[in-house]
Amino acid sequence: MLSVKQVLIVEDLPDVADWLHQQVVIMLDPDQVHRASNLADASRCMEQHRYDLALIDLGLPDGSGMSLVRPFKKANPAAQCIITTIFDDAEHLFGSLRAGADGYLLKDDTEEAFAGHLSGILQGRPPLSASIARRLLEHFHPLAGEKDVALTRREQDMLTLIAKGLSVKHAAEKLGISHYTAAGYMKDVYAKLQVNTRAEATLKAIHMGLVNPS
């Protein structure tokens, strides 16, 4: 189960930031929650602290929150980086996932659904709004005549553990292999599935029947 002790919320609307803060405290019970209302403040927080979770809005006053994803993941490789936004278009969705985001939640979901996704982060459930998950599945639906993808047994083992919410490091430990070897397997998986992130790889592999996370 994921332990969330340090959280960063990047949101420029005070009432939304207040609600996210409240939900994070209720659902995840972190030790500390930092808040930033723009890119500059968020960057300063990222320089001064390490985090287990970030909730990042895309539409910020001084630019797109998408630009924070790569540096956040680089500084906090084991953390979850979740986009929380009103944008449900493919450009923002896939741009965020390619940047390394671990999830994508729509702020216009019901409060119950949104809170459920936050709670599910602890259990390793993919933090994706229902409409976003459908869009991803449609995008990755195998086209007629699409070439079959053949994964090795080890690649399937890695992808199955990743689909259950484990990091590459923890999956490697579970399989008794080095992190370097595990990363190599995932690099080959990305190439075979033609994706760039764990979230994309998981959804595409499940949809194509290559792995069964249950």
Automatic annotation (TrEMBL):
Record has DNA-binding as a keyword: yes
Q: Where is the Response regulatory domain?
A: 6-122
- HTH luxR-type domain mapped to chain residues: 144-209
Q: Does the keyword Oxidoreductase apply?
A: no
Could you list this entry's UniProt keywords, alphabetically sorted. DNA-binding, Phosphoprotein, Transcription, Transcription regulation
**Which residues are annotated with the PTM 4-aspartylphosphate?**
D57
- Annotated InterPro entries: CheY-like_superfamily, NreC/VraR/RcsB-like_REC, Sig_transdc_resp-reg_C-effctor, Sig_transdc_resp-reg_receiver, Tscrpt_reg_LuxR_C, WalR-like, WH-like_DNA-bd_sf
Concerning PANTHER family, the annotation shows:
NITRATE_NITRITE RESPONSE REGULATOR PROTEIN NARP, TWO-COMPONENT RESPONSE REGULATOR
Q: What is this protein called?
A: Two component LuxR family transcriptional regulator
Q: Give the organism, scientific name.
A: Alcanivorax jadensis T9
